[in-house]
Amino acid sequence: MGMKALEGIRVLDLTHAHAGPICTMYMGAMGAEVIKIEPLWGEMTRMSPPLIDGQSPYFLFVDRCKKGVTLNLKDPRGNEMFREMVKGADVVVDNFSAGTMDRLGLGWETLKALNSGIIFASISGFGQYGPWSDRRSFDPIAQAASGYMWTMKDAIDPEGPPVQATEAIADTIPGFTCLIGILAALNHRNRTGRGQRIDVAQMDSMIGVMQSFSFWGLARTTFRAASRSRGVRISGLHRATDGYVMFSLQAGRITDWFREKLDVEELTRELVEGWVAERTVKEVVDILAEIGVPVAPVMNLDEVLANEHAHAREMFVKVDHPVLGEITEPGFAIKFSETKGDITTPAPLLGQHNAEVYTELLGLSKDDLEGLRKDGVI
Questions:
Q1: Strand 91-94 and strand 10-13: pairing?
Q2: Preceding amide of 140 cis, omega within 30
Q3: What residues does each domain of the chain span?
Q4: Gap between the Cα atoms of 241 and 312, Å rounded
Q5: Edge-first strand listing for the sheet containing 236-240
Q6: How far apart are CA 233 and CA 230, in angstroms?
C-alpha cells in the first residue's frame, strides 16, 4: 500500500466516548500515528453494552487505527511522561470537560511552550468559554441545546414532543468538525511553522449545520415545514407490497418525469400512494431510478450489509481482532485516488502498546515500565 495522506503525523489522543474518538479514528485511517492514552481502568466506552467476550462493539467501532497505552496524568511522573511525548507530537486531542487540561497542568500555554508547532484540539459540549462552558454534555444534551431535537419533531409529528435523533449525530458532527479544524491547522503550520489552539463545541457544531436557522430567521419556519409548504408533500416514505421506499420529488423536471410515467395531469399524494402500494419495493425503485427520480429502498441493517453497492464501495471491511477474531466493521468513507485510507487495524486492548510506545518515544526500559506499572503510573 502506498503513502497515506497523514503519514508522519503523530497524534496524542486523550479522547473518550464518541466525538473525540471518531475524529482521531479517521486521522488514523488516513495514516497518522494515533496513540490513544487511557486511564489505567480504561475509558468509558470499553464498558458500553453489550459486551462480547469483554469487548464493546461501541469501542471496537470508534477506536480502530490506534495504538493504545495507559497513563495516569494525575501522577507527577505520568504527567511528565505526557509532556515529553508532546515534544515529539504534532496534534493533541481531548474531549474532557472545559478546563480539565488546565487543571492537570497541561493547558494550551504549557503545551505551546513544550512544542511551538503543536496543534491542541478540544471538543466539549459548550466550548472553552461562554456562560455554559462549565456544563457537561453528551450527544442528547447537544441535540437539545442546539435546537436539533426540536426540529426533528417536524419529521414525526409537528404537534408532538421533541425527538432525539439516533446514531449519536451530535457527537459525530462535532467529531468531524474537529477533524476539519485539525487538517486546516496542519496546513497553516506547514506555511508558518506555528501550531494553534482549536476549540470545538458540540452545540456550535450542530448550529453550524442546521439550515433551519436560516429559514427561521427569515420566514419563521423550519426547513422541514418549508419543504412541505412548497409542494414536495408527495416526496417521502411510501409503503409498497413488501416494504418501504423513499423518494424525493422537487418542483420541476423530475416531477414532470414522474407525472409522465404515471400518465396523469397532476400528481397527488393519494394517487402516488396507491401506485406504490400496488408494486414491490424493487419494482418501484427500478421504475423511478430509470426515469431519474432520486429513490432508494428503506433497508434494514442486514440488507445494507449484503448490499452490492456498499460492497463495491468497500463500505464493509474485515477486521482481525486479537480476542474476537475476524469481525465486520464499516469501511472508510473517503475515496482517495493517491492516498487510500485503511480502517482495518483493530481497536487496541487496554495498554496493549505500552511497551512499544514508551520504549520508542521515551527510551524506557523493561524494568522502568515494570516499576511504573507497580506504582500505578501506567
A1: parallel
A2: no
A3: 10-211+313-374, 234-302
A4: 28
A5: 236-240, 243-247, 295-297
A6: 8
Q: How far apart are CA 215 and CA 2, in angstroms?
A: 46
pLDDT, tens digit (0-9, with 9 covering 90-100), for 125-178: 999 999 999 999 999 999 999 999 999 987 788 889 999 999 999 999 999 999
Cα separation, 371 vs 378, in Å, equals 9
Rounded to the nearest 10 degrees, how much is the dihedral formed by the CA atoms of 224, 150, 125, 217?
60
Residue 244 host element (H or E): strand 243-247
Contacts 24+ apart (CB under 8 A), 179-185: 179/23, 179/26, 179/27, 181/121, 182/23, 182/27, 182/91, 182/93, 182/119, 182/121, 185/119, 185/121
Question: Which residues are part of the catalytic machinery?
Answer: 171
Backbone angles phi, psi at 325, to 5 degrees: 80, -145
Q: Are β-strands 67-70 and 91-94 bridged in parallel, bridged antiparallel, or unpaired? A: unpaired
Q: Which of 144, 104, 140, 119 is nearest to 200 (CA)?
A: 119
Per the listing, cell 523493561 goes with 366
Q: Give the position of cell 485539525.
A: 182
pTM for the full predicted model: 0.95
pLDDT, tens digit, for every residue of 174-201?
999 999 999 999 999 999 999 999 999 9
d(CA 339, CA 34): 17
Q: Name, in order, each residue with C-beta under 8 angstroms of 37's C-beta and a sequence gap of 6 or more.
A: 12, 13, 14, 69, 70, 71, 73, 82
Superfamily of domain 10-211+313-374: Crotonobetainyl-coa:carnitine coa-transferase; domain 1 (3.40.50.10540)
